[in-house]
Amino acid sequence: MPRPSSVRIVKRLTSAGHNVEPEAVTLLAATADPDSAVATLLEAIDESRMTVTAEDVRFHLESALDLGNDTRSNSGNDTRSDLSRNRDENPSVSGGDTPSPAPGTESKSPPETKGVTGRQGPSDRPLDRSAAAESVGVGSPTNPPKASTSSRERPPTEPEITGDVTGRSTGTGEYEDFVSVFRDRYERLASLLRGRVKHRPTDALEAMPGGADAALVGMVSDVRSTRNGHRLIELEDTNGTFPALFMNDRELFEVADELLLDEVIAVSGSLSSDGGILFADEVHFPDVPRTYQPSTADRHVRAALISDLHVGSEEFLAGAFEDFADWLHTPDAAAVEYLLIAGDMVEGVGVYPGQDEELAVVDIYEQYERFAEHLKAVPGDIEIVMVPGNHDAVRLAEPQPGFEPELRKIMRAHDATIAGNPSTVTIEGVSVLLYHGVSLDEVIAELPLESVSYEHPHEAMAHLLKKRHLAPTFGGKNRIAPEKRDYLVIEDVPDLVHAGHVHKLGVGAYRQVRLVNSGCFQDQTAYQRSVNIDPDTGTAPIVDLDTLEVTVRKFG
Ligand code: D5M
Ligand code: FE
Ligand code: ZN
After folding, report:
1. Cβ(523) – ligand 1 distance below 6 Å
2. pLDDT tens column, 228-250
3. Which of 48, 121, 270, 437 is most enclosed, with most CB atoms within 10 A?
4. What does the alpha-carbon distance between residue 102 and residue 120 come to, in Å, rounded to a whole number?
5. How far apart are CA 541 and CA 95, in angstroms?
6. What is the distance in A from the centroid of ligand 2 to the CA of 389?
7. Residue 391 Cβ < 6 Å to ligand 1
8. 504: Cβ below 6 Å to ligand 1?
9. Which residues partner with 307 through β-bridges?
């Protein structure tokens, strides 16, 4: 809804002596003629009425609302249709008008029942293609006026944060913590898989006769090629390990290329004649249920997604960020009520060897002070949520807690919500998994699939979602802190995943979950030049929370 009409509605109602609920404004703005709707409403309601509610609007303007709603839902349907494509294929699932339960709850959809019997990479999903072809528009701002109109409707609720380690870290670095983080991962991911196969613990498989049908749920502890070119996958559960063989003449063989060490999968097949090996027929990933239906906002409201500013680096693109902040003040950005920042706010110090040569600001606190200054250019009525990245001044090992009080104080000006990495933030009913994305380097390096590359970071994100874990491989490049709980397990399916880190733009979807990698506000660094990384700079994907449609804006 264009903001001017919302503003006019609020002004007219308040000048007549009423307060007004935001939802009532939305409803009025959705009518064909908001001005006469307000006039009708003012005539109908009691003058002494303190607050005009959505209920009042519905009661007094029934017919006008029908008209407005029709227009609105028609335009919304264009996007809904591609978001519901999978849904249409499955008649047992209810349509889009059925209210969904709380976001991120597994109860939303029945569990997955079918296994993977052949190549079925995340990129094969219909929504992926639609995301690239239809949903992503690229716009560039045209000299936005600087004046702030600052009349956004305030969001009814504060962003709600879940799955955040901040203040809950129990890790002491002891061996037991490593054991417990693994157990927790195994238990929680195995529970997603157990209903799908008739699994047995590894020691029970050992006791089974040769040739029998069998299945197990295990963590991938080793992947090897055999002399005959088959793939031998060692699977570990809490009782021991058991080998599964992926034969190279079977379609399933290609699925072995999708596997990462330490992820949890279920494998079913038949035992070899001596009972010592499981010949794999089917693999199940914890996955997103095929029928998963994301929650969406019930009004037109948008969120801007950015990451990797690297303030303090010589390559920080201050001008591009300024242009972005300017744009947020324009009527074009009226519906943008949220700004989600996925880490690497500052360049930090001592992150990579030789980094000091490219520092414009060497003091870490001064870097955050400058970052805070830049944030002040963002309209004050935009709700900001941010999580740290590997350049930020928090522990490097994931999960990373949110900033310490001293840094929070520096960034206080905008009253941003500061959470750990990863965290899930729910805004307007839409759950957004915010993760900086360090594991993406490893996923891109390890998976031999052509679809997964720095050019398509969302494809790597899709694999994480399929594995329901943000950083499957332990002990690789990305550091994982030993905690009692594995905060990197994606326990609840989010509606949107927002990552950064690779400095490449990527917009896509996995099943019905929207995936965005937001690019960066840092020009190419010497390291990136040496390895031919061409960053996507000044990019700000804008997501419509009512449709999960994404429009990419580019600045600078
Ligand atoms: O990471 C930005 C991207 O560049 C990410 O894909 C890692 C990669 N990168 C950048 N510098 C290095 C060095 N020195 N070694 C290895 N990989 C690197 P960012 O987190 O912004 O530095
Ligand atoms: Fe970065
Ligand atoms: Zn990073």
Report:
1. no
2. 999 999 999 999 999 999 999 99
3. 437
4. 29
5. 28
6. 7
7. yes
8. no
9. none
Q: Which of 167-176, 369-378, 454-463 has the lowest mean pLDDT?
A: 167-176
**Does residue 445's CB lie within 6 angstroms of at least one atom of ligand 1?**
no
pLDDT value at residue 250: 92
**Distance, CA of 538 to CA of 556 (rounded, Å):** 6
Residue identified by tokens 């699925």 is: 255
Mean pLDDT (whole number) for 545-556: 98
pLDDT tier, 481 (very low <50, low <70, confident <90, very high otherwise): confident
Give me ligand 2 centre to Cα 463, in Å: 21
Concatenating the DSSP letter of every residue in 184-251 gives: HHHHHHHHHHGGGS----HHHHHTSPTT-EEEEEEEEEEEEE-TTS-EEEEEEETTEEEEEEE-TTSG
Cα–Cα distances (Å) from 269 to 102, 113, 117, 247, in that order, read 37, 16, 11, 12
Nearest CA to ligand 1 atom 7: 502
Of 33 and 20, more confident? 33
Pocket perturbation via mutation, ligand 1, pick of 387, 391, 435, 441 by most ligand atoms within 8 A of CB: 441
* Shortest-distance atom of ligand 1 to CA 351: 22
d(CA 297, CA 294): 10
In 312-450, beta strands by DSSP E? 336-341, 383-386, 417-418, 423-427, 430-435
